[in-house]
Amino acid sequence: MSVRRAPDAGEWRTGVVMAVTFHGADDATVFRAQLAPDLPRPGRVEPQETLSLVWHGRDRVTGVMPGAWLRLRGRVHHLDGDPTVHNPEFHLLDEAPSPT
User: CATH fold of 13-93, please?
Assistant: First the structure.
């Protein structure tokens, strides 16, 4: 999953949720998550590349939590320089995909 380019909205990506952010009482109802193509390598705290996921009008998305694997698609926009997908179509995966 390269997030440096803006692939077609129909392209499926797979990754692991690294973090979620809940909105505050005074904030707009938005649920955010950070998706990485894989778990960080040993000795690294953060993955090299992440994709921001934003769900508008949601204060949580069932099953989307740190450590969950997702398969998703949606158009990538660069919001403040960060690759972001708004309201992605997604499926929860039971386990990490096997490397190909």
Answer: OB fold (Dihydrolipoamide Acetyltransferase, E2P) (2.40.50)
> At which residue do the structure tokens 């040993």 appear?
42
Domain residue spans of the chain = 13-93
Residue holding tokens 């960080």?
A: 40
pLDDT of amino acid 2: 47
Q: What percent of the chain has pLDDT over 70?
A: 83
pTM (2 decimals)? 0.81
Question: Which positions ≥6 away from 38 have C-beta within 8 Å?
Answer: 15, 16, 47
What pLDDT is attached to residue 8?
A: 60
> Residues near 45 by Cβ (< 8 Å), separated by ≥ 6?
none
pLDDT of the residue at 9: 67
